[in-house]
Write a structure and sequence with these properties.
Blueprint (H helix, E strand, L loop, with lengths): L1 H16 L12 H14 L2 H4 L1 H15 L2 H5 L13 H7 L2 H11 L3 H12 L1
Length: 121
């Protein structure tokens, strides 16, 4: 059990370094998801049985938190395949835009057609 507790504490220490994105609150943030997954695994006592697996997960999380690939392979361009910058992608994936898209799905088909036709003119 000591190995499991130590491994659990190491992973929690890494996840504490990872900042939670306030624009993706409510379960959409990756750190929140990982924290729930790790906590559930510790409660289910899978740390002791899969010690090597959790050790590999710790190393992978450490690379993510420290941005090792970002530092090792710097990007030359500021845009992505979508031609959006990182800041624009961040805005598109925010909770506000997701809520707006959900509200747009509630519009009737006729209203969508009218707005599409008026935007083309």
């Amino acid at each position: 059990m000591a190995l499991a507790a130590g491994s659990y504490k190491r992973i929690l220490g890494i996840l504490e370094k990872w900042p939670i994105d306030p624009t993706k609150a409510g379960g959409r943030d990756y750190c929140e998801h990982l924290l729930k997954h790790v906590t559930q695994a510790y409660k289910d006592n899978t740390f002791e049985a899969n010690y090597k697996y959790w050790d590999q997960q710790y190393v992978a999380l450490q690379k993510l938190v420290n941005n090792s690939n970002k530092n090792k392979f710097p990007r030359l361009l500021s845009s992505s395949a979508t031609t959006l910058t990182a800041e624009q992608c961040h805005q598109v994936l925010s909770n506000e835009v997701m809520e707006e898209l959900r509200n747009e799905d509630k519009r009737s088909f006729l209203k969508k057609l009218i707005s599409l036709r008026s935007s083309k003119k």
